[in-house]
Amino acid sequence: MYDVNAIVDRLLQFLEMEKDYVTSEALVLVKDLLRKYPQWSQDCIAVVGNISSKNVQEPKAKAALIWILGEYSQDMHDAPYVLESLVENWDEEHSVEVRLHILTVVMKCFFKRPPKTQKALGAALAAGLSDFHQLLQYNVSVAECVVNPPKQAVLVFVDIHNIEIKDRIFDEFNSLSVVYQKVTNLLTSPSSFE
């Protein structure tokens, strides 16, 4: 059985490294960890709360940070203000995934902390509706695909995919193998980051 405590400690150390690429990958893993082990939220949000959304540029990492803000906004004092800042920078955000997370999370935060989030919710809804209205004007078929995208079959579950590599990565837990989900010898290969 894995030592979740050691995993959490190491991920939090990665978050504190203040290297953009490490922080980005670690944020995605912390989000996934919290989805499976919500009992570790207090340890994680103490560290995640110190990460500035301005320092996270990679869309999946930004979406993970936003998800954490929404899920634990009742325990994160600055969550409504961070979300407000993200809404204010809506036009600079080009990732559809991040915009969708902002809309969803601002609503979640509003239900938990209405007075602090009311302004951000109004601005997020206005921005989101404006975007969708423009999309409808551009092409109704494209708008339909946004609302009702084609379903993609899940062919492989991560939990059962290549157990040998997963076990080797766990054995190399004190390295960046966990963040990049590659064993050490693959990390040193020039082709591993292409």
UniProtKB/TrEMBL annotation:
Main location: membrane
Keywords, sorted A to Z: Membrane, Protein transport, Transport
One GO cellular component term noted in the UniProt record for this chain: endomembrane system
Chain ranges of the Clathrin/coatomer adaptor adaptin-like N-terminal domain: 5-120
Taxonomy, superkingdom: Eukaryota
SUPFAM superfamilies documented for this protein: ARM repeat
GO BP: intracellular protein transport; vesicle-mediated transport
Cellular compartments annotated: Endomembrane system
Family: Belongs to the adaptor complexes large subunit family.
Protein name listed in UniProt: Clathrin/coatomer adaptor adaptin-like N-terminal domain-containing protein
